[in-house]
Structure formats: structure tokens, C-alpha cells
Amino acid sequence: MVMRSRSVNAAAACLGIGVLLIGVAGCGGGGGNNAAGQNTSGRGPITYVQGKDNNNVVRPTIDKWNADHPNEKVTFKEQSDSADAQHDDLVQHFQAKDANYDVVDVDVVWTAEFAAKGWLQPLEGQFALDTSKLLPATVKTGTYNGKLYAAPQSSDGGLLYYRKDLVPTPPKTWDEMMSDCSIAKQNNMDCYAGQFAKYEGLTVNAAEAINTAGGVIVKSDGKTPDVNTAEANKGLTNLVTAYKNGNIPQQAITYQEEQGRQSFEAGKLLFLRNWPYVYSLATTDGSSVVKDKFGIAPLPGLNGPGASSLGGHNAAISAYSAHKATAFDFVKYLESEDRQTFNATQGSLAPVIASLYDDATLVQKLPYLPVLKTSILNAVPRPVTPFYPAVTKAVEDNAYAAIKGDKTVDQALKDMQAAIQAAGS
Amino acid sequence: MASTTATVSTAAAVPATRRRSVNWANVRSYLGIVLIVIFCLAPFYWMVVTAFRDVGYTFDTTPWPTHVTLDNFRTSFATKLGNHFGRALINSIIIGVFTTLLAVLAGTWCAYALSRLQFRFKFVVLGLILGASMFPGVALLTPLFQLFTNIHWIGQYQALIIPDISFALPLTVYTLTAFFSEMPWELEEAAVVDGCTPGQAFRKVLLPLAAPGLFTTAILAFISSWNEFLLASELSGDKTQPVTVAIAYFTGSQPHQEPYTAVMAAGTIVTVPLVILVLLLQKRIVAGLTAGGVKG
Amino acid sequence: MSVTSGVDTDEGRVSKAPEKSPSEPRRNASLRKGEGRRAIFLILPTLVLLAVVIGYPVVKAIIMSFQKDPGLDKSTGLFVSGGNAGFSNYTHWLLQRCGEASCPPGTLGSQFWDSVTTTFFFTAVTVVVEVCLGMWMAIVMNRAFRGRGLLRASVLVPWAIPTAVTAKLWFFIFAYDGIANHLLGTHILWTGDEWASRFAVIIADVWKTTPFIALLILAGLQVIPGDIYEAARVDGASAWQRFTRVTLPLVRPALMVAVLFRVLDVLRIYDLPAILTNGGGGTGHATTTLSILVVDQIRQGFNSAAALSTLTFLLIFLVAFIFVRFLGAHVVQTQQSQQKGGAA
Predict the structure, then answer these.
(1) CB atoms within 10 A of CB A178
(2) Mutate which of B92, B227, B249, B280 to disrupt the C interface (most C C-beta within 10 Å)?
(3) Closest C-alpha among B92, B129, B51 to residue B229
(4) What is the rounded CA–CA span in Å between residue C190 and residue C175?
């Protein structure tokens, strides 16, 4: 029927034009591939993007900057607390070449990935940063392919929490700690726990075990896997054996940071590997029974402190920012001694400036600071590779299976090696 | 209500002697009701108990309320800490209401066409609409994000409302089509014979009869937009954040600390408007207007 | 969603007399005029919305699935565009090829078929349990008694709580030292053991979504007139017979829609297992569904994720097709079939 087919045609045309318009709009986007070379002298208001500001340090910092720079105000865009959500949010905005994100806070393990995708402004030339006062390990986390892409902002390392009323001197090696487990049994407690659920925390713990025993996950180029070695085997076997004979309790396979903290605070755990945040909570929580009964020590190692996995955050400039000069000044401001001290006293965030760790007032405020310094000085970063999501998955999956006993350590390391290899191709 | 008359007439027919013994049907009913309420509300009860519990005792497993405090609720609304929960509630309601209205409108038109009008390609249209529910939502995020960034919709209400409508549409259309198809033609025919246009016949005769379906669909659409998180987390801005995103932004006072109690408090608050909405609408889900209209 | 044959061939003209029974009134010719055009305009808003929000990303995803993910340029250390991939993204998933070799454990490619099995398992179990429970709840809610409104409101509570909060709640309940183990006196690793983690996800999902099914079935039950039950009772039918011979057939359209959409939803489930178990359990991926795999893959390479999404889409399409074809979800009925099958 003529009327009908005309209507059908009209409708089809409408739909078609609609989709076409969308296609055009969808294809549009910001600058070309050489975004790093653009807007290098732009000044103006910028946006600082960070995950949740738990300790309320960012807002005062930004207020202070804004008071001094009324024409280059900083707006704070706060992301969620979850690391994965922060990562995905940054990826979405970078992929869309969004100019609204100027300075971004990146977790240490994402720097290589973002740098390799061309999303971060290299900190060289007019953006060169003086890194001499900073802890070397933190600078390494911001470096990719020989260039500095992000400025260290805060650091973090693993600590060993122990019950000083039951174990007066903390163990210095893994074997010592395992022999202390008899004390745990006597007191009807679990011996040791870290983070062994299948998530990033497991990579942290597995990397610590492997690195402490002298092994590596990837070679120094950051890409070639080298985890199928005798040292790595020894490290991972420590965890596997402890889980098998009960020194690591069965339920620890579901532990993230909070579950271990809960068990330790309830007095059910003798040794806990966790981040510094547990310190103040174990002291102040109403339900904590270990308030003045616990101490902190560096992680047990082979012949000295163990290698903890380096945590922390870096501040980077987005390659798509329109006001990079302002952004760079803000980055330098975040790294200044004044701000680092403020972060430490107000927010309990470990600073990246080496000298601050010996500052008397800071140590008084944060009693774990000297231990944390040892931890960070001996820290080994997780693999600095642009394929980090795939690498961490390879480590997580195989370490989890090994600890649970579903695979032998030999097989787990072989599979880990093959999976990391496949990730890089 | 039709089934009431059924039970009443049955009771009247039962001889006097029998009525003194236990009516097992009623006991079964009441037992069923109790079981249903326990099933639905037990975890919710735990959520409320946790919401009122002091954050220092988060992991306490005492089944009844202990260490009761209102702190968690205060924290949820504390804008000084960066929790904009109140605004998020309003945003969720705005987004939900617009999504529901537009989805039900578009869905009703479409369902009418599918169930009452005749045209070719009906099968294709039904298939396309169903097909829209087959693609994993997680993969839609990146293209939509880029599209909305380019047309500068990010952080505005329409960036959330339009996708929510599209997610609600397939179910809306199918449910309404199923309902309209169940409605007999005779009434509309009669209305047309009496002088109504087809459109009027639809509005005045069919829609009231299909009220249970309409209000059910409205509730479904509203809750589906209320629950939506993945797209909202990326497409909303600070001022248009819905509750699902706001709750995900809750934080403990320390990094790595999980704010369970605050999240449970927020969850409790979030349920209240929905319960009110359902209590208001639940009378409409009842087909009070079937009396005399359908058979005969 | 089949349409009875009488409608397909009809071009909107005057009906063909031989197909209709003589007792049916003929549809007024004026109703038919311009029906096609009216139909187009009524359907257009829906189709346009769906085309923009879902059609465009789907088309884009399919196009991208034939491109390789960016590879690393060894000299600069930067990612460069990958170029045409042909079907290699698809073989990566279906045949688990990572380059030349088979994908080793610990890569996402090795988890594809496990995810398919897991997703189907979740779908089968949750839908069956939810339908049975939902049907029972709907029948109870359909009865007249005081406080019916409060019962309905309390039934909707599980579904009203945002999924993210529900997942966190159940994570909390199922913690090793949580309330579930406390009340049951057990020490189950709900989020660690293979089957415990799967059932944890199923329990949480059933709790959350049974109200949805119950609500749809209830709406369907509401339009069944009470005198049909009365007639059946007078005829001597038992409660079970009344249920299977009267209730089920009449509530079937609403039930079919509910089940169909529930199946499609569970096949795409993401939020609940991601937050509750992070896809873990067992050897590490006992609760990884296809959508979780997609999200993990998006972090590693979007084009491969697009291929996986397309495969998931085809899989779901297959399931929906079988469902509609063999279980006959007759959504659209015409006057003829109504007269034939509907009346008691």
C-alpha cells in the first residue's frame, strides 16, 4: 500500500539519520596522538582527581592553594574508594581524551600502563622534577622506560603486627615466625595471616613472599617474566606449607585487609601482615582487645628485613589537559615538604621525602614511622609493566591455586610464567 | 475482591459443625505469610541492626541490637565529610520518576501497537526489542561514555535518564503487550460502536482494565532505574549522582577501611521511599475494576 | 513470542472471512484504515531510544571486535594501534588460543568455557528456585486478608535495596566470622569454597529477585476472575487441580514474560558476584560469570572484550530463541487464539 510503504520509508529514514548522527558524534574527540606536545604553557583553573579523601587532607590543601592562586583555582573531583573503580574511571576519561581531568592521582601500579598509552605528560624538559630528596623506591614507581611520568605523592609499605605480650621480640625471619606458632597454639589463636583472597592484595602478599626469598616476578625490563626460579619457588612454598599445616588459618583464604584486622583486634591472631592504617584503628576501636598489647615490626626476611610490596600514590599530569603549566606547579606543591608534613600529621599518610622520616615531631605523632621507613627502604615495587592488569591476574590466579593446594608450587610458577608471557604479547 | 467472594461463599456453604474445627486452609495461609515475611525481612533486619551499631563494633555478631548509636545515619548525611547522600536521594527520585513516566508512556504506545494493531514485521519488532536485553550491559559503558562526552551530556540528568529508559523498555513493552493481549476486544469494539475513536477506546476502556499491569510495570521500571549502578557511576557528575553511586563513595576514616555500618545505614534509608511508594501503589495493583466488565 | 499465523499475512485490509468463526464480530473497517501508519508512529519512540542507547554501542562493539588490541611498540615503549584482527579475537575466546599456544591458566582466555558453565548453572538454578518461590508468594499475596498492603511492601524490600548494598550486606553476612556461620554454628568458607561461594551468590540473588517474579505473577493472578475458581471448586477440583488446570494456564503469559526476562538478566549478571565474591571461590574463578570476564578483559584490552561481549550476546540470543521456540512464550495473541484457548 502506497501510504504504508511511504511511512515505512520515512521511519526507516529517521532511524537511519539518527544512527548516522550518533556515529558522527561518537567518532568525534579531542586532539591527535601527540597530545603530550600540546598546551604545555597553558595556565588556568584545573581539576585534581583523586580517590576518596578519607583523612581530609586534600580539601585543606586545595583551599590553601586557591587562596594563593585566585586565577588558577583547583577543583577537587573525588572518586570512589575502590581502587578498581578509580582505575576504570581514569581509563574512561583518558580514552575519551577528556580535557577536564588535569592532575590525576594514580596508584603506583598503574603508572606504566597509563604512560605507555600516552595518557600522561612526561615530566622532563620544562616539566622536569627534582627527585633528589625523595625516597628512591617511590621515584622508581613513577618511572617508565627511563622517563619520569608521575611524581610520587604518598607511600606505603607492609608492616608486621604482632602481640608483644605473647612474643616479646618480633621474629626476624620467616622460619623464626613459624616456630613462634607454637605460642599461638598454646593460646588457642591463629598464627599468621595476610591478604590471601583473590584480589590485588594477594599479588601484594605473593610478591612479598617471592621477593623476600630473593626471587623476582619480572626482570628489570619490567616485561620478561622470570618467576619460575628456585628462589621464587622457596618463597611461594613458605606460604603454601604454612596454609597446609594450619599456621595460616583456613579462613585466611577469604581475607582482605579488613578481615585480618578484625581477627587481630579480636585477639584471635598472633601475627598480621597489613598496612599502617591498622595501627590507629587497633588502638582506638571499641571492640579491640589488643589496644596496648601489640607492636609493629618490619616484615620478616631472609637475613634482615623482608621485602614488602611498595604501595602509595603518584600525581601525574594528563596529556589532554589544557592548562599544563598550572598543573605542573600544583604537582610540585603537592610534593613540597610543607604538604608532605601536613599529610603525615593530619592524615597519617607516609611521606615521600626521605628526611621527614627522621623528624622527631612526626615520629611522635606516628609511632610506626621508623618501622615504616625500614619497610619502604627495603620495598620492592610490583612489576612495572604496561600490562599490569594481566600480570596481576596471572600472579593472583596461580598463587591462589597454589596456596589452596589445587596446584603444586612448581606447576603454579610454570603457569604464572606462561601467563605473564602471554600477557605481554 | 473476587476471591473474597469465593471464600465467603464457601464459608457460608459449610455446615455449622465443621466451622468449629481448625480451618487448615487459613492456617496454611498464615503460616505461609509468616514464612514469607521472615524470608524477606531477616537479612534486612540484620542490615538495620548493623546500621544502628557503633562503628567500632562493626564485626559484632550479636543478633539483637547492641552498642546502638545514630552516628552512622549522621555520617551518611554529613556533607562536610563529602557524603552528599541527601542530594543523591533526590537525584535518584528525579531520575526514577522521569524514567518511569517516559518508559511507561513509550512502552504503552508500543504495546498497544503490538497487541491491537496489525502490521507486517511485528515479529521483527518484538525480536529487536527483546534483543536489546541480550547484550551485556557492562560493554555498553565505554561507547556510551564517549558518545555522551562528545555531546557534553556527562554529569547531566539526561545522561542517566535516557539509558535507564532503554533498559526498562524491553520488559515494559513485553509485560504490557502480554497484558493488553489478555484483554478481550469486545469492550473496545463496543466503545467504537458507541462513537469513540480507537484512541479514546484504548484510553477509556482498556487502560483502566490493564491497571494492574500498568502499575506493576511502573514499579518495575522505577526500581530498575533505582538499582542501576554501573552506568550511573561513570555518566553522573557530582550534582547528579544517584544513591547507588553515593553509597559506593562512602568511606571509612582510614584507607582500606570498609564502612560497613555507614553503608548499611544508607541502605536502610534508601528502602524507605520505596516502601512508601509501594504502599501507595499497591492498591492499584489490585484489579478492582474487573467486576462485571470481562466475562458475560 | 510467536504471533499466530492469521496476522502475518494480513496487510491491514479487511479480514479474510473463512478464517474467522461466524460468531466473531467483524472488526470495523474504519479501525483498520491507517493502522500501519499509526503503528509505526507508536513504535518509533521505543525503537529510536533502543537504537541510540543499545544499538549504536552494539554495532560499535562488533566493529571493534575485528580490530586487534593495541600492541606495545618495542622501541618507544608506547602502545600503538593493532590493526585488523580478522577472527583472531573470537578464536582467542572460543578455542582459547593466546597467540600460537593455548591460553595458560591465569589468563582470561583460559576461563571462557568455565565462565559459560558457571553462568548457565547460575541461570538454571536461580530461575527455577525463584519461579517456584515467587509463584508460592504470589498465590499467598493474592488472598484477601488484613495487612495485605504491608505484606506486599515487605515482599518488595529485598528488591528495593540497591544491588550494591545487597551484595555488601551478604558479603558481611557470609564472612567467616559473620552472622551466617554464627547462627548455623558452622565454619563454612562462603566466599572461598567452590560450591559454598556459588550457593552464596545464588542465595543472595534469590533473596533479591524473587519479589520481582512474585510481583509479575501477582499482577497476572489479579486478572483471573474469582468465579472461575468457584466453578472449578463446584466441579469438585482439588486445590492442586485448581492450581494446575486453572491458575497456571491463565497466569502463563505473565509468567512467561517474567521467566524470559529473568533468564536474560541472570545470563548477564555482574554486580552481585563481583561484589560478593569478586568472581572467586574454588580455584579462583568459581563464580566468574561472563560479564565479570568482560569487565576484567576491558581492563586489559577493549577490542577483545568487544569480541567477548558479542559472543555473550550470541549465546544469550541462542538461549532466548530456544526458550521462545520450544517453551512457547506466546506474548502476542490475537482475537482468534483468545476465543479458541482463553475461555474456561
Answers:
(1) 20
(2) B227
(3) B92
(4) 7
Q: Which helix (H) or strand (E) holds C130?
A: helix C112-142
- Calculate the CA dihedral of residues C174, C178, C184, C188 and round it to 10 degrees: 50
Q: Are strands C79-80 and A294-297 parallel, antiparallel or unpaired?
A: unpaired
Residue C43 in grid coordinates: 513504535
Strand, helix or coil for residue B1: coil
**Cα dihedral A107→A109→A113→A119 (10° resolution):** 20
| Pairing, β A103-107 against β A311-317 | antiparallel
Classified as helix, coil or strand, C117 is helix
pLDDT tens profile C303-333: 999 999 999 999 999 999 888 887 665 555 4
Distance CA C344, CA C336 (A): 15
Percentage of chain A exceeding pLDDT 70:
92
Residue of B nearest to C146 (CA): B30
ipTM above 0.90, yes or no: no
Q: Are A231 and A215 in contact (CB under 8 A)?
A: yes
Q: CA–CA separation, A52 vs C148, rounded Å?
A: 44
Per-window interface: B 114-133 vs C, CB < 8 A: 114-115, 117-120, 122-123, 125-133
C-alpha cell read off for C173: 553476612
pLDDT band at B8 (very low <50, low <70, confident <90, very high): very low
Report the range of poorest mean pLDDT among C87-101, C123-137, C191-205: C87-101
CA distances from A76 to A65, A89, B80 (A): 12, 15, 14
Here the contacts of A229-237 (C-beta below 8 Å, separation 24 or greater) are: A229/A413, A232/A413, A233/A409, A233/A410, A233/A413, A235/A209, A235/A210, A235/A211, A236/A206, A236/A209, A236/A210, A236/A399, A236/A402, A236/A409, A236/A412, A236/A413, A237/A409
| Gap between the Cα atoms of A82 and B251, Å rounded | 9
Are the beta carbons of A224 and A203 closer than 8 angstroms? Answer: no
Confidence of residue B76 (pLDDT cuts 50, 70, 90): confident
* Residue A100: CA count within 13 A, CB half-sphere: 16
Query: By the 8 A CB rule, do B279 and C149 touch?
Result: yes
Cβ atoms of A65 and A38 closer than 8 Å: no
Question: What pLDDT score does C211 carry?
Answer: 87
CA separation (Å) from C315 to C1, C112, C126, C318? 18, 12, 18, 5
**Cross-chain residue pair C106–A262, CB shorter than 8 Å:** no
Could you tell me which residues come within 8 angstroms of residue B158 by beta carbon, excluding any fewer than 6 positions away? none
The pLDDT of residue B80 is 65
Cβ contacts of B50 within 8 Å, gap of 6 or more: B58, B260, B261, B264, C172
pLDDT band at C1 (very low <50, low <70, confident <90, very high): very low
Distance CA C102, CA C86 (A): 18
Q: In what order do the strands lie in the sheet with A159-163?
A: A190-193, A269-274, A159-163, A294-297
Interchain contact B154–C (C-beta under 8 A):
no
Each residue's pLDDT tens digit, A163-188: 999 999 999 999 999 999 999 999 99
Which has the higher per-residue pLDDT, C31 or B273? B273
**C-alpha cell belonging to residue B153:** 551530556
Residues 6 or more apart in contact with residue C77 via CB below 8 angstroms: A116, A144, A145, A386
**Which range has the worst mean pLDDT, A15-24, A240-249, C99-108, C149-158?**
A15-24
Among C99, C191, C283, whose Cβ lies nearest the Cβ of A422? Answer: C99
Residues in chain A within 8 Å Cβ distance of C106: 393-398, 415-416, 418-420
CA–CA separation, C186 and C199 (whole Å): 15
8 Å CB contact between B180 and B171 = no
Residue A323 · residue A122 · CB < 8 Å: no
